Amino acid sequence: MSTVARQCPRSDIEHVRKFVAYAKLVLNSAWYYPPYGGYRYMVALALYSKCITVAEAIIVLVDAGFSDEAFGMTRTLVDISITLHYIANKDTDERAKLYYRYFAKDIEGWSQVMKDYWPQMTQTVTPRTLKIAANYPHPHRWSGKTVKEMALEPDKVEVDPTTGKPAVHDFAYKVIYRWTSHYVHPTIGGIENHIVQAGHDNFVVRSGNVRNMTHLAVFNIACYVVNTMICFYRCLGDPQPDRLATWGGALIKHLARRHE
Cβ distance 220 to 69 under 8 Å? Predict the structure, then answer.
């Protein structure tokens, strides 16, 4: 009997494309109707929908050969995962409400921008909106915490098997969030495929091919769609659909094994 592992005929992106499409189908087929004032439903559904849509957009970039840009865009998936995990982790209704009502702070901020650049179009912000906005001291932190603080909050459900203590999902923040940020912002670490050897190479746009980020981009899609999916169902208090959960775990293991 041969001990050689059978080569999978499908590419990484094909596997992920099918999974994302199925996750979307399952969500649409569930026919969720958010109840009036049901912040956890409105927020969780919107964030999960955004996650799936961003994943679809990244797949388009991968198909078109823009691996750096696809990898950078996966930071949005990490952001969504961190946000929804923080909301689902504890005090879910209050945190979802805090997230949702942050729109008031955004309106307050834009009203000042309008005064500065389009004073003729300025509209009065309602007292109710200003009252809600006053609950948010920081203009860029809906939770009042940094992304790091949100990401490193100990998990109320999962346990670290090595310590027996609540799990802390530090890898997502300390490694993936940091790494993808280099490709979101124009840092030197994210433009190596655009640099040529001085005094030697002729420069053209996207001249280098130092590192192909395709696999990492695709792997991040799988990981953070699955992570967001888990947080989504936890947030709603619903069980994960069996096939979706099994498929998600198997997909991540399969992608990891192919590139060990």
Answer: no
In angstroms, the Cα distances linking 23 to 19, 81, 89 are: 6, 15, 22
Taking 70 as the threshold, does the pLDDT of residue 3 lie above it? no
- Over 80: is that where the pLDDT of 5 sits? no
Q: What is the Cα–Cα distance from 69 to 65, expressed in whole angstroms?
A: 9
- CA-nearest of 249, 230, 229, 192 to 55 is 229
Q: What is the pLDDT of residues 23-40, one digit of tens each?
A: 999 999 999 999 998 999
- CB atoms inside a 10 Å sphere around CB 102: 18
- Distance between CA atoms of residues 151 and 167, nearest Å: 11
Strand partners, 159: 166
pLDDT of residue 185: 93
Please report, for residues 20, 71, 136, 226, the alpha-carbon distance to residue 255 in angstroms, rounded to integers and kept in the order given.
15, 16, 41, 13
Separation CA 94–CA 86 (nearest Å): 11
What pTM, to 2 d.p., does this model score? 0.91
What DSSP line would sit under 61-76, residue for residue?
A: HHHTT-HHHHHHHHHH
Whether residue 121 is predicted with pLDDT greater than 90 in this model: the reply is no
Q: What is the band of 208 on the pLDDT scale with cuts at 50, 70, 90?
A: low
Region class of 184: left (phi > 0), else alpha (psi between -120 and 50), else beta: alpha
Q: Quick one: tokens of 49?
A: 């929908």
